[in-house]
Structure formats: structure tokens, C-alpha cells
Amino acid sequence: QSVIRVSFHDRRLQYSEQQQLEGWRWSRPGDRILDIDIPLSVGILEPQIHPTLLNTVEFLWDPCRRTSVFVQVHCISTEFTLRKNGGEKGVPFRLQIDTFGTGGKGDPPEHLHSASCLVKVFKPKGADRKQKTDREKVEKQPPPEREKFQPSYESTVLTEVG
């Protein structure tokens, strides 16, 4: 069983996460922050979407079969910044997946693995603009400095959580 959750990366926002999520729920009644895109996902069983946990989804999967899960984040990074006059930087989110084995009778599930990545979510035009300016910023760096930047990937790469 795996549980995917979107939370705040910034420590100061983590302290007020519940209030931030309640404010979001109030301003967007009936919407969710995180969903599983079932048609695009492969090999997942029993996807569960909790009505009260807007930023969490879970599912079962067979580790012996090819599995991929596509998720949709329905809020943008600037929804949690103080409104100015446009051009807000946006807050980074942490997308984390925790995987558990099945516990024995009466035993809690065994934690097997956790991995996460940082994501920023923008509207399509904003995302295109951000990618362009980031790419230009990296290209202007001298070659030794360029190596410090993470390369682009076609799909999301998660890093093991220690």
C-alpha cells in the first residue's frame, strides 16, 4: 500500500499547514488538492480518496508488476502566498509517497520506503514562462556551475527520504 501526500516544503508553512488547508477548502468548496489520474495510471488497485484528507490519496499495488501512478495537483503554488500585484514567487510543495507492507493479523502495516520531491505548480502559461527563464538562467552559467543544477526529466524523479 502506498500513500501519496502533498504538503508544504517550507518549515514556516508546515507549522500552519492545517489552517492553510482549511482556508483553501473554504475558498474552493468541493475541490481536492490531490487526485489520482486513474486512466493514465497502470497497475494500481483499490485507489482511495478520502473526503476529508484533500491532500492525500492511497492505493494498493503488486510489487511484482509494472506500476505507475499519475497524480493531479489541483492548486497552484501562488494560492498560498500573500497577494501582491502579480509575479508572486509561489511556495514549493513536497510530494511524498510512503509505502507500507501488509501487516500480520492485528499488526500495523510495516513501513517499507519513503520518497519525495519538490514541486511548484503554475498555470500553463506561467509554467512555460518559468521553465524558459530557468533554462536561460542555467545557460548563462559557466560550465562548472551548470553541473550543480539537476537535469530535466520526462517524469518526476523522487529522492529517498532518510
From TrEMBL:
Region Disordered: start-end pairs: 123-162
Coiled-coil ranges from the UniProt annotation: none
Predominant localisation class: nucleus
GO molecular-function term, one example from the UniProt record: RNA polymerase II cis-regulatory region sequence-specific DNA binding
InterPro entries the UniProt entry points to: CP2 (IPR007604), TF_CP2-like (IPR040167)
Cellular localisation: Nucleus
GO cellular component, one term: nucleus
Bias (Basic and acidic residues) ranges: 125-149
Keyword Transferase assigned: no
Limits of the Grh/CP2 DB domain: 1-162
Residue ranges, compositional bias (Polar residues): 152-162
Keywords noted in UniProt: DNA-binding, Nucleus
Protein name according to UniProt: TFCP2 factor
Gene source species: Tachuris rubrigastra
Lineage: Eukaryota, Metazoa, Chordata, Craniata, Vertebrata
Name of the gene this protein is made from: Tfcp2
